[in-house]
Design a protein that fits this description.
This protein is an all-alpha fold. The chain is 80% helix and 0% strand. It has one domain (2-272). The chain is built from 12 helices and no strands. 32% of the residues are buried. This is ABC transporter permease. One of its GO terms (molecular function) is ABC-type transporter activity. Pfam families: ABC2_membrane_2.
């Protein structure tokens, strides 16, 4: 009950926040641009160079927006004293964080749905055509990416003492998982024997939410061969009957673990203080 109350409160506050509409405008412009680019490709079924480019562009922008939106939202609650007021109603930190995640999830999914719908309308008005499957694919891809990074952002906000720490933490996670992850992975793999490379590659994929969503999505588009023989087993299970349920389970575990870690560290710090 407390979780749903916090979620409803977050939705009301979120749609009154100027940050929400700033991000909405940015996402809409971005989505219009990439879909107009996509419409110029003759063949849009399956994975193409343009599809890969748009996925990479989404990977750069959306996680950053999500990390900043979620982490700062939690930190502001602490700075303004709203959390102290809410805690007088016997509200646990775990319930509070879950409520924030649910509320922000609704806001983000609404923003993405509006952005892709608006982009589709603009493309139609300009006489650009593209398969509906393309629009749906990118909406699902973006939604999964946003939901899993929202869980990470909630943990960052729970650990941070103020909005500046939340901003720095969000940007740091974005920089590590999006910008320098390939370089870090290559540097580590170069120091390891070949016999353990496959195992390390699998583990590293599950440790980076962006890579997890990207690789799964590309394999669903039939582009599993670009990852080489090390990912042959991935192609088998991703395209199998249980591929999607397993992936959804992994994403859910990521979100649950992040929120529980955030609540645990927040509670532990309060006890020390």
């Amino acid at each position: 009950m407390h979780t749903l109350t916090i979620a409803k409160r977050e939705i009301k506050l979120g749609f009154r926040n100027s940050w929400t509409y700033s991000f909405l405008i940015l996402l809409s412009i971005f989505t219009v641009a990439i879909l107009l680019l996509q419409s110029g490709v003759n063949s849009t079924e399956g994975y193409t160079d343009m599809t890969g480019t748009m996925m990479n562009m989404t990977l750069y922008l959306l996680p950053l927006i999500t990390l900043l939106l979620g982490s700062v939202s939690i930190a502001v609650e602490k700075e303004t004293g709203h959390w102290e007021l809410l805690s007088t109603y016997a509200l646990s930190k775990t319930s509070f964080l879950w409520g924030k995640w649910l509320g922000l999830a609704v806001i983000l999914l609404t923003m993405l749905a509006f952005s892709f719908g608006f982009a589709g309308l603009i493309a139609f008005l300009f006489g650009k055509s593209f398969p509906l499957e393309t629009l749906i694919f990118f909406w699902v891809f973006s939604s999964l990416l946003a939901l899993i990074y929202l869980g990470v952002s909630i943990a960052i906000g729970a650990i941070a003492k103020n909005r500046w720490q939340a901003l720095i933490g969000g940007i740091a996670i974005w920089f590590i998982t999006i910008i320098i992850w390939p370089l870090l992975l290559i540097s580590i793999l170069s120091l390891l024997p070949y016999s353990v490379l496959y195992f390390i590659l699998e583990i590293s994929t599950f440790l980076n939410p962006a890579e997890l969503v990207r690789i799964f999505s590309m394999m669903k588009l039939g582009a599993g061969s670009v990852f080489g023989p090390e990912y042959n087993q991935w192609v088998t299970w991703v395209n199998g009957a249980f591929g999607t349920p397993i992936f959804i389970g992994v994403v859910s575990i990521w979100i649950i673990i992040m929120i529980l870690i955030g609540a645990f560290l927040w509670e532990r710090r309060d006890r020390r203080e």
